[in-house]
Batch of 3 targets.
Target 1
Amino acid sequence: MTMFLTGDVIERRKGPVMHKGVVLPDGRVLHNTPRRGEHVSTLSEFAAGHRVYLSRRTCDASRARAWSAYPQAGGSYNLFTNNCEHTVSRVAHGRAESPQLRGFITGGLVGLLTLLVTRSPGAAAAGFEAGRRFAAG
């Protein structure tokens, strides 16, 4: 597997979304799952048989937060307020946010409105994708 640095944001495919985690000083990964909430696991456990990608290379500030994040693991999972992206962005940027969730919600609303106006499933799918991409940044 690729060598990652403390504070690096990593990700792997999990169905239609990317599951994210942040690399801790000891090489393990802090992430958040529905079954276990915020927890620390090995890189291999995080990968769960999938390829792991570097999402964002670390910076000094995120390294420092990664050092302090280790003892704070343990928050409960909540899709809307504390999913894996919320956990990672809190460590990497100091604020919790989830661009993927924001994108899916916005895409769903745009797709639904498009379907109501056009009655075309194809146009609704295009509206969903356009809204998702716009909101996810």
Note: Helices lie at 43-47, 60-69, 84-93, 99-118, 121-136.
Target 2
Amino acid sequence: MTETKDQEVTLWQGEVVTSVRIAGEGKPLVFLHGEHGLAWDPLLDSLAKSHRVYAPLLPGTDGKHPDAVRALRTLSDLVICYDEMFEALRLEHAVVVGHGFGAMVAAEIAATYPKFADRLVLISPFGLWRDDAPVGNFMMLDPPVLMKKTFADPEGPLAQATLARLANLMSDPDAAAVHMWTSGCTGHYLWPLPEKGLARRIHRIQAPTLVVRGEHSPVLPLEMSARMLETIPNAELIEIPGAHHHLTLDAPEAFSAALDTFLRRAL
């Protein structure tokens, strides 16, 4: 596993303290984690081989400053707070990659600060809404049902290992409390609707954008991805066969190949 370091940052006039996990060398890349918190996985190991990866922990989820999330009442607050973070890290621009909830935040950052994102990668992104293709409230599902919604093979080793890990975690009261709080911090911005006005400003995104979804994802309707292609000026869509929401785990080789091609392509 890649060697990482955590850098603590103080933001929002001292009301927000959180950490950024950093690894690798090369061009800067910001990774915004999904709805269940940051897990340094093989994807980030791979990205750190060619980039300097900055992976912020959503304020409130670092295990040390749970109340930091209370200072950021809206998604707009969070986006501006991340801008403060990038200034503290002396990042003037970067590749921006996000998964699920993190992709929603990544799109908001790229729309609010168009010159910051060199490239934008939205993996199973939330952020838009269609009444004819609603996103279900999967954060309220029991773990076995959640596996069916987010993994292509809910009985396979990946889903079962995740289920076992959740069971072990929930058996430890302290770890369970951190897990539930982390989900609550992301849920604060995702629900009741995972759409906070992005449709009104998504046209501002200037970066070449890659939208990636699992081919048969029950979490992210195809209509949502199609709407992103219609509204982001320079976007392309890749569907990963045999993958659902956690497509970086369901089909890591296919996803890595698509991502590598996109990042290596000349601007």
Note: The chain has a mean pLDDT of 91.
Target 3
Amino acid sequence: MNAQTHPDASKPWYQQRWLLFVLSVPITSVILSSIMVYVAVIGRDTLVNDNYYKDGMEINQTINQDLLADELALHPKVTINSQGQASVHFSSSKLPQQAFVTLKIVHPTVGSQDVLVKLLPTADGFMGDVPSSLEGRRYIDLYAFDESWRIREEVVLPLKQHVMNNSDRARTLEQQMPKEQP
């Protein structure tokens, strides 16, 4: 019998091509898993809140804030220009005297881009400065100084004479709110 020898048969085991091919799959798997664990630990998500119970308890307070804004018939005219000036003008006669109003500009996904501004009273409304780099889709929350009422709306910045209307949302929330048992 004539025994034919394979050309790779004379090489040591660590120089075989098939060995490198077979080991490449588990080595790649270990490397990619390590990268995923690193990203999961270091890259924390700012949108996730760990205190779900507290958030659930605050829902009724938020609904009450929206309902009070609807009762006061607040329909403020909000302007945020590209130079960073924010102004709010109220036309409601039911609005109690405010020391200031709080304007919160919330980015939908990136918490580090949220802005909180206290607007001070002027002769014809409230004014304040916001960063001029704000552009694109945002949520604007307008709060009383004592946080008794709130108006929230989705907008695209910069704004020119945007009238916030809270009444439709407040009615929807009132219908969804559970009735208190006597």
Note: The chain has a mean pLDDT of 81.
